[in-house]
Design a protein that fits this description.
With 444 residues, this protein is α+β, with helices and mostly antiparallel strands. Helix content is 29%, strand content 22%. Strands 2, 3, 4, 5, 6, 7, 8, 9 and 10 form a 9-stranded mixed sheet that branches. A hairpin with a 4-residue loop joins β7 and β8.
């Protein structure tokens, strides 16, 4: 891991003016770009302004001291929010205002350093359905919410961000010149390719995260990846770079101050899975708070084997969005592939599997996460209309689909639904489906 030097822009410029040199091989934080990019050409001018910068440094320290109580408490507040299992959910207008306030503050520092600064720190071209994120030393940071898996699926969420670079056109301070660049060309059209580019992520945990790369190796998507279409890290497009907590203490303090200013007006969202439609009202008393089903409970047998639930089950309906499902079952616990569905991927919510098509619920089935043997199934559930495992053992099953190990429950054929219990090769239940009547029971 590369070292990061102490970073406030004012202090860095002062060190450069005093003739301190950057050690070879060390990264510089965004505020230190000026010392490397302008040291040889602006040394005299910087020396002339040393007294002014010393005064500025003193003023910054005084302001820091003045706000020390609030800023020092910000980290504790953030830790408290994690312990309380809540997310501070800001409106888009609030997030825009927070980012703008930080950008306005960064504007003066960028001008002093001879840098351009923009909020165009991230964008991307065509993508999938998963949320975009950045990898950091503290965990994944959600940077674009597509509700897949959504804010609760991440430890940290970005409120906004900025990028510092040296403009080819000599622009200093805030600019929108890079906003006009197409994704493929990125920063290369407007930035000095001989200098570094620094991206800052302003996160909801009160920290500023930083990524430093040479301009030749920094694009709009550098440092960012995308979760899979199922909303999981497994199968995600992973970023090659990792954001680190910035050493820019002035930026950290400023961001914490802004965040604390807006927190009182943010909506608090619990990250704990809501179970109000399952265990809370007693209707689904066979499901615990982890969506684990008690298959031995007669209530489950009555609910799932004697009622039609192929379009609605456990409070989830076909056509619901993933966010609506999350409000009922909580965040997904994993993913699987449904049997008998043409290798359709589905998200797991404990023992419940939900498959999505075009971002809405298409199929709801039971997918036990513990081993349930054929013997246990016969004890827990009604007697099957057709026991195909027995037919296979007796040599009655022919080749093809008849050789598939399953139980069929369809004693009242014509009522519009049936239950299929699929088994794996080891004789354990793989899936339980309440479905339309697509299998005709074999008359014996």
């Amino acid at each position: 891991m590369k070292k990061h030097l102490l970073p406030t822009i004012t202090v860095t410029l002062l060190l450069g003016a005093c003739g301190e040199e950057q050690k070879d091989g060390e990264d510089k934080s965004a505020s230190e770009i000026a010392s490397s990019s302008t040291e040889s050409t602006k040394n005299k001018e910087m020396k002339q302004k040393t007294s002014h910068k010393e005064k500025t440094t003193t003023e910054e320290k005084d302001e820091t001291k003045k706000n020390e109580s609030n800023d020092n408490n910000s980290e504790g507040a953030n830790n408290s929010s994690v312990q309380e299992d809540v997310i501070y959910q800001f409106t888009q207008e609030q997030m825009t205002a927070m980012e703008k306030e930080f950008l306005d503050w960064a504007d003066e520092r960028a001008k002093t350093a001879g840098l351009a600064v923009s909020n165009y720190y991230f964008t991307h071209g065509a993508g999938g359905f998963g949320d975009w994120f950045a990898r950091s030393e503290d965990g994944d940071i959600q940077v674009q919410n597509l509700d897949n898996p959504g804010p609760a699926g991440f430890k940290i969420r970005a409120i906004g961000g900025v990028v510092f670079y040296t403009s080819k056109a000599g622009i200093v301070g805030q600019t929108e010149e890079v906003n006009k660049a197409i994704t493929a060309e990125g920063y290369s059209r407007h930035s000095d390719l001989n200098e570094d580019i620094h991206k800052y992520i302003l996160a909801d945990n009160g920290k500023v995260y930083e990524l430093i790369k040479p301009a030749t190796k920094m694009s709009f998507t550098t440092g960012f990846g995308e979760y899979s279409d199922s909303g999981t890290r497994e199968g995600a497009y992973m970023p090659n770079e990792e954001f680190l907590v910035s050493k820019d203490t002035a930026a950290q303090q400023k961001w914490q101050k802004i965040l604390n200013k807006y927190k009182p007006n943010a909506e608090k969202i619990s990250t704990k899975p809501e179970q109000s439609n399952t265990t809370a009202n007693g209707k689904y008393s066979f499901i615990n708070d982890k969506n684990e089903i008690d298959f031995s409970d007669p209530t489950f047998r009555q609910y799932y084997f004697f009622e039609s639930h192929h379009e609605e089950a456990f409070g989830v309906r076909v056509g619901m969005t993933e966010k609506q499902v999350k409000d009922i079952l909580g965040a997904p616990t994993g993913e699987t592939v449904l049997s008998g569905q043409g290798a359709v991927s589905a998200k797991l919510y404990g023992d419940i599997a939900v498959a999505y098509f075009n971002n809405v619920v298409n199929t709801i089935v039971v997918h036990p996460q513990r081993k349930i043997t054929e013997t246990e199934a016969l004890r827990y559930f009604p007697n099957p209309t057709m026991n195909n495992l027995e037919r296979i053992r007796n040599g009655e099953a022919k080749t093809g689909p008849e050789m598939y190990p399953f139980f069929l429950y369809d004693g009242n054929h014509g009522n519009g639904y049936q239950i299929v219990v699929d088994f794996d090769d080891a004789g354990n239940i793989k899936e339980i489906r309440n479905q339309k009547e697509v299998i005709k029971p074999i008359q014996r």
